[in-house]
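Session log. Operator J.P. requested a structure for one protein chain; no other inputs attached. Running the standard single-chain path with token output.
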Amino acid sequence: MATIETLRQAIDTAEPGDVILLRPGLYRVTQTHIGVARAGTATAPITVRALNLGTVVLESELPEAIKVEAPHWHFENLVLKGVCADDDVCDNGFHIVGGAAGTTLRNLRLEDFNAHIKINGENDRFPDGGRIAHTTLIGNHVRRTSSSVTPIDLVAADGWTIDGNLIADFIKIEGNRVSYGAFAKGGGRGTVFTRNTILCAWRLRDENVQTIGLSFGGGGTGPGVWRGAGQPGVEHADGKMSGNLIAFCTDDGIYLNRAANSVLRNNTLIATSGIDVRYPESTGRVDANMVDGPIRSRDGGHFRAAGNIAASLPSMFLGLNPVRGYFEDPARLDLRWRRLPDPVDGESSAVLCGSPRIGPAPPGAFTDFRAC
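Structure written below.
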């Protein structure tokens, strides 16, 4: 493909099993979004890809750049940038809706949208069973908008896997000044966040905001977009977060809001307000995490816990951060062990980097950061 017009034509005429290979260059998305409405199949998906990441750049100045409405499309090795002068305009990079089951986004770089990836139902259909893998979602400036700022904004879809991504610098300085790295909510279930790195404030800084790393439940969902009968209740069920590194958030590293039967295992949280399990609907297990902050429940939330290393609220108020003493220089993300924690028993699981965890091992997202 050589131009945005030929790319649109190829997408509009694609058949199951087709691979649309873009030639190197800059593609400008103007006037209207790229619409994806022809169906692939589970055994013969339709793929849009560049040969190598960085050779193809798409720039969008629209509220949404690519809208996927059909199942089993794969997007690989693309750079997609929002280039709007007004942050209210560049809202969604990828918008995955309705019947777009089995969408896969792999090895992408997405920059400067309020929601780099927005996933939600449409016309009582839900884009279940997707995957986001090995993708960078990043902001190059603070967002001056009152719109929701959440790089992965997943509402009411089931069975998504978010694996091995970097999500960084999602700071919102207008409106409620609250932003999330990623959440799943709206009555969905079975979301897996694994082996991701979430840096709420990496190159950008503003202390007068609330940044939250990962969440099942987010800030809650209105009834109009709820899955099922449309009555708010459990925001998310049967979710798992494992092997994630979350750092430099002004608020919670992990927040469970009416999230039932959640599993939080082998995560490392640095310079956040810890893990918050809130409301009676929130239940689950919190095991073998390394948390530079407290692990707490409130407003009726409850969980079982084992093998965690965490700070207490009193120590945080006193400015004491005992968990940081395990690492060489956590402020610079040098997380080599200064002293090794006692190993804990736990289920075999993937880790952020290095070999899978088998048998007793230190808590947290990695056994040896030198493998990262």
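Operator note: The helical segments are 4-13, 313-317.
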